[in-house]
Amino acid sequence: MYINFISRLRSNWRPSKSHLSRVDFLHFYSTMSSETKPTFYKRPCWFYNLSGYYSYQTIRNWQLQLRQERMEPSGENLPDVLLMLEHQPVYTLGTAANEEFIKFDVKHPPCELYRIERGGEITFHGPGQLIFYPILNLRFHKKDLRWYLRRLEQVVIETLKTYGLEAYRVEGLTGVWLDEKKIAAIGIAASKWVTMHGVALNVTNE
Question: Looking at the 3D structure of the chain, how many domains does it have?
């Protein structure tokens, strides 16, 4: 995938571990696959690298708007989008989440709590965790959600490898592990082959 740094690019990286991870993730994301048709590499992508900490609902609403625009016939040729950011503390419950296994009272959560449309179970987001939200029209890449999940995992694995960290997959599960602990959670949603949600990579959070 060719990342086209057009005028919509916001570049304000911070000199920290988070900065380095953002740069490396973008590099591997931009070369995510060699398995698809040649037009894959020419598809532009608007890249937003956001500093500060963002409320979950604000970013979710933005994703929904970006996805809806690309689902419309008039928006089919809009560029893909990649959002990189950190959230304010929040728990999200995916479609597979079972409240019986949550370790706090969902009526009185320790921070904001949302049940959302992505796959997966409960995930915590907060400062020190990098979030990557690709809004992709998979009709221009590959119409296969399993393929897409595996490619996102591979992007994380290749990014961590640049730091000498040998991350890996676990058979039958989605995400990326390091030293027997899950370092990246991955959950997506798609409608008419346009994706939202994405990757949560633990960098400096406790």
Answer: 1
How far lies 73's CA from each of 63, 108, 186, 193, in Å? Answer: 18, 42, 28, 13
* Length of the chain in terms of residues written: 206
Q: Say what the pTM is.
A: 0.79
pLDDT in tens, 20-31: 445 455 555 555
Note the pLDDT tens digit of each residue in 21-78: 454 555 555 555 445 444 445 678 898 999 899 999 999 999 999 999 999 999 988 9
The answer to whether 145 touches 188, Cβ cutoff 8 Å, is: yes
DSSP labels, 140-167? GS-S-HHHHHHHHHHHHHHHHHTTT---
What is the extent of the structural domain holding 183?
17-202
Q: What is the CATH number of the domain that holds 69?
A: 3.30.930.10
